[in-house]
Specification:
Number of strands: 0
Structural class: mainly alpha
Largest sheet: none
Order of helices and strands: HH
Oligomer: single chain
Radius of gyration: 15 Å
Length: 61
């Protein structure tokens, strides 16, 4: 029943984020990550994380 526990843990994590006011969540699942490894990235604004707008690398704005 490990899979059921994993699914419940993910649901709890997402519920906690939305209850805390997080309005946009992007999830990438990597098979090669170690168990229970979580990486979060936060940014101000509504642009995509890692985009030129979010990183400030836009040349001609």
């Amino acid at each position: 029943m490990t899979e059921d526990r994993d699914i419940q843990a993910i649901i709890e994590l997402l519920d906690n984020k939305t209850e805390a006011g997080v309005s946009r969540i992007h999830i990438d699942v990597e098979e090669k990550m170690s168990n229970e490894a979580v990486k979060e990235q936060y940014h101000h604004g509504r642009c995509d994380v890692g985009s030129p707008w979010a990183t400030g690398s836009v040349r001609n704005f």
